[in-house]
Design brief:
It is a single chain. Helix content is 21%, strand content 29%. Strands 1-2-4-5-6-3 form a six-stranded antiparallel sheet. Strand 4 and strand 5 form a beta hairpin. It is globular. It holds the Pfam family 4HBT.
Length: 207
Amino acid sequence: MSSSRVHTPASKPPKQPTAPWVDPAALPHDLDADIASIAGSAPDYVKQLVCNTFYAYGVGPADVFGHAVGRATRFVDMSIQPSLGRAGRMEAVTVAEVAITNHMLNGAGMLHGGCVTYLIDICASAPLVALGLLKGTNGVGVTQGMNVLFHAPVPVGSILRITSSSISMGARVMAARCEIVDKATGRVVASAFLNKMQPEAKAKAKL
């Protein structure tokens, strides 16, 4: 992953024109996120707000599903770069890593497919949040659908490298792709496409 710098806003996120579903700037500052250790060309404020959104909204409090897995996941790179062959459009790419422990396994002693899907859901959302922050729109949204392919089993002790990139971002609908590889072997574990939508802010109160 290249960490070369591109021209991006330097200090503060642009103001969003309407009330967002979830505002990354309003979420608590995550003290465990070490922004200095995250490589890549994204501005520091984007890295921090993406981490805040990931841990406060994507992972949530200690008593919710998948919390231990989500908290163990750490970003190592966040980059904003021109998208090749797309007429100057920008693309956000995030890379996260997580070590496979016993509570992530299925009965056969391999990484559970449900855990893989959970990781894709929360990690593939990150580049959309990052791109939204730079564009002055909201990239949080809710998941509409995922198309996941499982390529190889993963034993305990493996470290996964999860690379996610934005594909498109409209006013209400957005999409990202994700690829998970075994960091030690480079073997592809899973790949996926994620579709998200931006609900109306008032809909949150009805759920």
